Amino acid sequence: MTTTPAIRVEGLRKAFGTTTVSDGLDLEIPRGSFYGIAGPNGAGKTTAIRQIIGVLVPDAGTVEVDGVAVWPDPLEAKRRLGFVADNPALFERLSGREMLEYAGLLRGMDPADVATRAEELLRILGLTEAENRMIADYSLGMTKRIGLAVALLHSPRVLILDEPFGSLDPVNTQVMEEMLQRYRAGGGTVVFSSHVMDVVERLCDRLVVIEAGRVRAEGTVAEVRGDAASLQQAFVDLVGGRDLDEGELSWLQSS
Amino acid sequence: MAAVLLRLRLAIQRSGRGRSADAQGALFWAVWVLAGVAGLGGGALVAFLTGLDDGTALVLMVFVGLFLGWVLLPITVPALQDQTVDPARLEMFPITTGQKVGGLLLGGLVAPTALFTFLTASGGALAPDEPLAVRVAVPVVSALFVVLCVACSRAVQALLSRASSTRRGRDAALVATGLISIGGYLAIRYLASNADALAVFSSSTLATVLEWTPPGAAGQINLDMRAQDWADAVGGLAFVLAWVAVALGGWYWALSRRERGGGHASVRRAKAGRQAGSLALTGGIMRAFAPSAALASAAQYAHYLFFRNPRASQQVLISLIVAAFLGHTSGMPSGLAVAAGLYGGFATISMATGMLNYDGRGAQFLVVAGAPLRSVLAGKFAVTATVVSLATVVFMVVEAALGGFWGVAFESVLFGVAAVVWASAVGAYVSVVSPFDSEHKAPGRGRALVAILVALGVVLGAVIAVAGLLSLLPTPLLVNAILAVAVSAAASWAVLRRAGAHFQGHQLEIAEAVAVS
C-alpha cells in the first residue's frame, strides 16, 4: 500500500517579471519526517514555501498537502497546515494570549480546548509572564515563539517553518527543538528552511538543496553529504563557494 | 548632512507618487503647482484683508488658522502626518540629534504645504499703499513663519509619538484630540447660531489676544511694519524667534530621549487572578454570545478601535463628533428623523470604510490561517453598526432634549439605525475594494478617498430616497421607521454578502495592501 506523502510538489513554476524563482520544482516529503529545505540566499526557498502554504499562486505545477490539492482553493489544505514565518505575521496589537484565542476561534476550535492549549503552550514556550503584553512589544524571539504557539494550537498534520531558529537564544532553541521532536513523534511532519547546516544535520532525516529555483540535491542527510567532511562543505560544493583573493578588503582593519 | 536628508526626502517624495517614472514626475510637479496656485489665492486674500481698515483680526486669524492646520491636522488626521523621512530609520546612522533636526526641518521647509503657507503669509507684501521696504521684508517674516509652523508641527508629532508609545500617553493624546475636536464643534455651533458673535472677528480685543499667540505675533509683525511701528515689529520678531527655539528644543528633546531609550512602552504586568481556562479576547459582555469566528473578529476589532490602536481610536472619536456637527446643521432643519439618518450615515461611512486598514500584518495571518473571511468581515460589520447605533441614540437624546422633540425620538432612532446598518454594509464593501495600510504612507489612499466619496453619495442618496418615498406613504411614522429598518437590513445583507465574497476571492491582494512593510 502506498502512503500519501505529507507534501507533494510537481513542476512548480513561479516568475516575477523576467526573474524565475521556482523553475520546475519537484518535491516529495514523507509523512512523519523532519525535512530540511536548504539553499543560498535568493535560491527561492521562501517563495516555494509560500506556494506550498497557499499564499502565493504558482504559475504552473501542483502542490498537495496531506493528499489535498492546495491550488486553486487552498482552504482545506490550510486546515491541515501550521506555518511559522521568519518574522511571524500576527495581530500585533493583541496580547499573546488574545492572539492564541483569536487563532483558535477562527479555526473553529472549542473555546475550552483553546484556553487549555493556550495555557500550556504559553507555559512551555516561556511566555506566561508576557501573555498580556501586546505582541508589538515582544522581541523577535518572543514573536517567533508566539508564532509557533499559534501554528501548533490546532494540532496540524504538517508544520512548516521558515528559518525557525534565527533570533532564538540557546535555551529557547532547545525548547523549540524538543517541541518539534515531540510533535514529530506524535505523527506530525516538520518541514523547515534554514541556512544553518549543523541544525539541519542534527535534526533532519532528509533535506533538499534548492538553487535558482531548482532542486540541486535531495535525499537523506548522509546521501546529500556524500564524501564531504560535513554537510556545510557538501552544501558549499553544491552551490559553489566564493573565496576572497589575497588583496581584497585589505583596507578593512581596525587601526 | 541637512542637504543629504533633504535630497533623501525629495527622492522619497518623488518615488512615492505614481507607478511609472513619468507618472511620478508628473504627480510630483502637479502637487507643487497646485500648492503654488492655492498659496497665491491665499496671498491675495491676505493682501485684501491687510488693506481693510478693520482687517487686523482677520489677518491674524488667517495666520493662526494656518498654524493650527500645521499643528492639529497631523494629530487629528493621522494620514496627514509627515512620515516621508522617519527619524527612527535614521538611528542606525552616525547622525547627531541636532543634524537630524536640522535635516528634517530643512526637508519640511521644501514641501508643497510649506510653499502654500509661505505664499499665503506673504500676501501682505501685495497690499495697497505698502512701502517698498515692507514689501521686501514681508517675505522674510513669512519664511520665519513657515519655520515656526514646521518646527512646531514636527515637535508636537515627535512628542506625541513618544507619548503614544505608552498606554497612558496614548490615552492622553486621544482625550486631547477628542477635546480639541469637541471644542471646535461647539465653537462653530455657537457662532453659527449667534450671528452677533461674528462681530467679534472685527474687534480689536480679538486682535489683541491673537497677537500674543506665536502665529498671531508673526502676522502682527507685518502689520506693525506697515504702520511703521518698528519697535513693536522687532519685539514681535524676538517673540516668534523665541517660539521657534522652544519648538526646536522640544523636537530635539523628544528625538534625543527616544535615542536614550526613554520612549519605550512600559511593560504591562500579567493580570493576576486569571481563572484557568478563561478566555482573554472574548471576555466581558462578549461572553453573552456563542464563541465563533465572527465573535472573535468582532472582539479583535473592538479591541483595536478602543485604545489598542490610537489611529483607529482617533478615527472613531472624530467620526462620531464631526457627524454630530454635520447631522445637526444639515439634518435638524428637516426634522429629527432626517438628522438621525444623516448622523448615522456620516459617522458610519467615516468609521466603516477602513475596517481592514488597522490590521497590518494580521491580515496576512488571516490568509495563512485560512480564516473564514466572510465571518471576519461580519464581525467587524457588527462592531461598527453597534457602536454607531449606540452613538446615534446618544445624539438623538441630546437633540431631543435640546429641541424638545421627545415625541418622535424613538422613530428617529430607528431611522438612524437603518442608516447605520446600510452605511456599515457599504463601508464593509469599500473596505474590501479599497484597502490600504493606515500605519504607513501607502499606495491606495487616493483610490480609497474616491471610494469613500462614492460610498457617501450612495449612503446619503439612499437615505434621502427612502425618506422621500416613506414620506409619501399615509402610514404612521413608527410604521415608516420599521419599514426603513427592514429595507436597510435586506439591502445591507446583500451588500455584505458581496463584500464577503470579494474579501474571500481577493484575500492575497487585500492582505498585501494593508501590510505594506
Provide structural commentary.
The complex is a heterodimer of chains A (255) and B (517). By secondary structure, chain A is of the alpha/beta class. Chain A has helices at residues 45-52, 75-79, 96-106, 111-124, 140-152, 170-185, 197-203, 221-225, 231-239; strands spanning 7-16, 19-29, 34-38, 60-65, 68-69, 81-84, 158-162, 189-193, 206-211, 214-220. Chain A is 35% helix and 24% strand. Chain A is globular and about 60 Å long. The mean pLDDT of chain A is 91. Chain B has 517 residues and is mainly alpha-helical. Chain B folds into 2 domains: 2-259, no CATH class; 284-514, no CATH class. Chain B has 19 helices and no strands. Chain B is globular. Classes of the chains: A alpha/beta (255), B mainly alpha (517). At the A-B interface, helix 2, helix 3 and helix 4 of A face helix 11 and helix 14 of B.
Question: What characteristics describe this protein?
Answer:
heterodimer, A: 255 residues, alpha/beta, Rossmann fold, 2 domains, six-stranded mixed beta sheet, four-stranded antiparallel beta sheet, 24% strand, globular, B: 517 residues, mainly alpha, 19 helices
